[in-house]
Amino acid sequence: MKLATLHIRGKTVACVQTESDFAVVRDGDVSSLMEQPEWRSQAAKAAESSSRRLTHAEAVFAPLVTTDRKIICCGLNYADHISEMGRELPEHPTLFAKFADTLCGANDRIEVRASEKVDWEAELAVMVGSHLHEADEAEASAAIAGYAVANDVSMRDWQNRTTQWLQGKAFDATTPVGPVLVTADEFGEEPIFDVYCYVNDEQVQHGDTSRLVFPPAKLLAYVSTFTQLRPGDLILTGTPGGVGAGAKPPRFLADGDFLRTEIPGVGSLRNQVRVEGMTSEESCAPDLERRQLTHP
């Protein structure tokens, strides 16, 4: 099952994707759908009988999460990325938080001001499907609702101003997540995903989640020991090697670059990056109509 949050007439709706269209399950977003104990049956029923439907061509993706949720990210979680950043393998996960305002849709433009070092970080995102508190790994694994694609676009000059990363990770509308949530039952136990990132069609990252120091279930269990996780919360699991800051010399995204993030079997994001200093009035506009890209 594939779930998506779509824009429709000035609001967002949670939908289930079928072979021919998207069927509206309820108003809101996918994270709010997770609060419904019968979300699976609601989505299945909507796929068969919902009168509110959008064709694939009409779909305008919003972030999976649009409301106030816990969005927790793990940094330094792939061994090759840890090495390129000159760090030692961590004993415990390196965690930081984001806000819902940080997220954007699968085809939105990413507009950045006040940073000259905009970097890419392709990631697997995991959505929580049931309440977790002081859970073990088996309970955490059973609580995974599904998987999505994310890119933790990072403003390295801001991130490195202090030892706290938040300010470089929480620029508004700079973290694309989506395009859909593929439910965990589409995969076997402990699935392995390939994670790719491309800049202007040049592959800059490729890793697979077998290399994670802290796999999804371990991460969720760890986080649940100090804060409760609820349905609809989102966990970003870290990025593989190949980020711009780790290149020699370092390289960063330029105005107009296209960022493509792919996880086969899960989905693909395609986002154009606009940075401060743009001369086109249109490219600077923050409204949805001008930020949204056409489908690749």
Secondary structure: elements and pairs:
Blueprint lengths: L1 E7 L2 E7 L3 E7 L2 H4 L5 H11 L3 E3 L15 E5 L3 H6 L9 E5 L4 E2 L5 E3 L5 E2 L2 E7 L8 H6 L1 E8 L2 E2 H4 L6 H4 L5 E9 L10 E6 L2 E7 L7 H9 L9 E3 L21 E6 L3 E9 L5 H4 L3 H4 L5
Parallel strand pairs: 5-16, 7-13, 8-18
Antiparallel strand pairs: 1-2, 1-13, 2-3, 3-4, 5-6, 9-12, 10-11, 10-16, 11-13, 14-15, 14-17, 17-18
**Average pLDDT, all residues:** 92
Overall number of domains: 2
Order of helices and strands: EEEHHEEHEEEEEHEEHHEEEHEEEHH
Determine the CATH topology of the largest domain: Fumarylacetoacetate hydrolase, domain 2
Strand content: 25-35%
Helix content: 10-25%
Quick structural overview:
The protein has 296 residues and is of the alpha+beta class. It is 18% helix and 33% strand.
Can you offer a commentary on this structure?
The chain is of the alpha+beta class. It folds into two domains: 1-60, no CATH class; 65-291, Fumarylacetoacetase-like, C-terminal domain (Fumarylacetoacetate hydrolase, domain 2). It contains nine helices and 18 strands. The strands form three sheets. Strands 1, 2, 3, 4, 5, 6, 7, 10, 11, 13 and 16 form an eleven-stranded mixed sheet that branches. A five-stranded mixed sheet has the order 8-18-17-14-15, with no helix packed on it. A two-stranded antiparallel ribbon has the order 9-12. The relative contact order is 0.20. Residues 278-291 have low confidence and may be disordered. Keywords: Hydrolase, Metal-binding. Residues 287-296 have a biased composition (Basic and acidic residues).
